[in-house]
Amino acid sequence: RARILRAGEAPPAVALPDLDRGEASLAQWRGEPVVLLFWGSWHPQCRLLLRERLAAWRDVDAAATTAVLPRVVLISRESAATLAAYREAHGDPWHFLVDEPGHVFDAYRVRGLPYLVQLDATGRIVRAGFAHEVIDALEAEVLPAPSQTDPPTGD
Predict the structure, then answer these.
(1) Which residue, 29, 99, 115, 136, could crosslink 38 as a Cys pair with Cβ 3.0–4.6 Å?
(2) What's the Rg (C-alpha) of the chain?
(3) To the nearest 10°, the Cα dihedral for 138, 149, 48, 129?
C-alpha cells in the first residue's frame, strides 16, 4: 500500500511516455525544481489552473526574480492522442506525460484532480496536495512579488 507523500522525502520514481521524446523520468530533471501536476484535460479546475495560474509563469521576466521557475510536467491518465490534441489546440509548452494505466497516479496516491507535487532541485518533495491548497505557497516562492509603487498623490 502506498503511503502519503511527505516533505523532504524522495518521491516515487516516474518513467512515462512523453509526447515529445519517447520516455521521460524525474532523473533527467535532477538539478532543477519540478512541479508535477496530475490533471485531466476534461476537468474544469485543471483547465482553469493551466489557463489562469500556470500560464502567468510563462510571462515572468527571469531577470525580475532570483528564484528559478520550476519545470512544469503534466501527468494525465488520458491517451497520448487526447493529450496531443489538447496541446495542439491550446499551445501549452509544458511536458505532457501519459499514465494511461494509472500506475504513477497510484504511486503518488492521487485521489482527486488537480493534484500538485513540488520537487526541489535535489529531487526531494517540497509539498504535495490538491493544487488549490498548495499553489499559493508555491507561487510565493517562485514568482516575483508584485511591484510596490507608491500610489499617485494627486498633485
Answers:
(1) 115
(2) 17
(3) 20
For residue 49, the Cα-to-chain-centroid distance in whole angstroms is: 10
Fill in the amino acid letter for 105: F
Full DSSP string of 43-104: -HHHHHIIIIIIHHHHT--GGG-SSPPPEEEEEESS-HHHHHHHHHHH---SEEEE-TT-HH
Residue-wise pLDDT tens digits, 86-106: 999 998 888 999 999 999 999
CA distance 36 to 16: 13
Q: Quote the CA–CA distance of 10 and 116 in Å, as a whole number.
A: 15
This prediction has a pTM of: 0.88
**Tell me: the pLDDT tens digits for 4-61?**
899 999 999 999 999 987 999 999 999 999 999 999 999 999 999 988 888 888 777 6
Cβ 125 vs Cβ 118: under 8 Å: yes
